[in-house]
Amino acid sequence: MKIVVGITGASGSLYAQRLLHFLSQTDHEIHVVVSNRGKQVIALELNRGLDIPKKFGLYNDNTMDAPFVSGSTRFDAMVIIPCSVGTACRIAQGVSNSTITRSADVFLKEKRKLILVIRETPLNLIHLRNLTTLAEAGAVILPACPSFYALPQTIDDLIDTVNARVLDHLGIDNALSTRWKESF
To answer: Does residue 152 sit in helix, strand or coil?
Structure first.
């Protein structure tokens, strides 16, 4: 598959880092876009830059030179992880003022898989209405809500319960976390 991973300025950089780590172990073609605020949050949360494998395409969030900003180029899925509600609201309103929001708009109009890993709480009525609009347009709204039933032992285990769901929605086999009623 050809997958775009957008990383925005919501807290939760580790979700993106762990997803990129897993995807680096696959044969899928991966392209990454990090927003300016995403870079700031990554610096705060990870105390280093994001580890982006060299085999991945890497793009600025202010370029139109990325192949996935046009519907004429075939891509399979886009994941925005973490996805700020500001980004989600701009996408819902058709504001394509960055590489990430333009790409998301393209994925919606072309009926391609768009997964938004929302990392915000609480949500106000404006957020909820925009998330509803996105769901009605075909996006998967996947809040970063980890599960605890498998008794995760590390922060990575906890993060991977969310990433397992992302990978499931991408159709990528994984064993990142224990599934409900599987052996613990």
So the answer is: coil
